[in-house]
Amino acid sequence: MKPEYKNLRSLAAAFLLLVLFAGVVHIAAGHLDLQTDDGSFGPWYSADKDLSYNGITDNLGENTVLLLGSSEFKYGRTTRYHPVNLFADEDFDFMEVGGPLNQSLFHAVVAGAVAPKLKSGKVILFLSPTWFNKKGVSSGDYALRFSETQYIHFLENPDVSAEGREYVISRTNDLLENKKKWHGKVSLINRALADENAGPLTRFLFQIERILAEDRDRMSTSLLLRIANKDKFDPLLPQTGQYDVQDLIKMEKEAVEESEPISTNPFLMKDSTWERDYIKKYKGLKGEHTGSIRKKSPEMDDLRAFLEVCRSTGLKTKVIILPVNGRWFDYVGCDKSRRDAMADRVIKMSEEYGVEAVNLMEYAYVPYLTNDSSHPWHVGWLKVDKEVLEFCEKE
To answer: Which contiguous run of DSSP H or E holds residue 67?
Structure first.
């Protein structure tokens, strides 16, 4: 046999083995159950879990509320004031999605992707004022939090409006254009799902990529569930009973008493945080961040896209503008008028979409509100909890 024929046979054999292996993986992935029997997946704080479309949708219950946010979720998780602990015994539960670097654009994709599977139809966005900076979400941050499976299901959701869909596609293209890991895949997905003139080859290649993405999602999430330390994602405190809004108001007195001995610094943050992150450098930061929160930020357009996606998919939505430490923000130069201008624009925009928005920055000077400059502490979480409870109990 000629050498060139031997090479062809070797290539053909290798290709068949690859197809066989991929087929076995696909069958195995399809039989993986990602649902946690104890309901621990929803409150699990994990960047990897947040990227799994299949993990999230497999763990949505009848009364699950989609809770979207960013790094605030990791603060106060060992206290009863954190919503995943305080409301652990309520009739509703949370699918918490968010960590550092997450902002409105990412959450627009998540909301549009999971909307058909979210039986409660309820979404709460914890909106951090610090998202509204000069540049908005960065390309690198968006790439780190980009989920291929969620993006595919977002584009496949026929209820997402053309306006929301086109904005997310355009923004995603711009942010991932120079990211080698994602640029080619996103380009293929967009051509297959958003270009009416996509040819059969494009659609065929997309179907292969789609299968591979779904299999990676299910396999990696299954592995993550097996190797993860259960203590990291089980509810951190025992169930504490059911509450009404008046209960939460009364608890604020207890929160103040608990916080007062461990918050003796000039900005009424948690002392351990102050001593670790601020005491050595705070004098040099006075007036250094005059433009840190803006009403004119790319984040405003990303938020509008999020609101449009929620409106078009029929999701009942609430936006909670998280509190910040007013003493600190005044000190670094981002005064109250600037913060209020941002909040006023967010509230007005939300109203345009029929979405309730509340501004918890109005409590910016209340003691023991934040752990640091912008993440909720005991009193801050109770202010948030009140808004969460009112929304979750609404019919």
So the answer is: strand 64-69
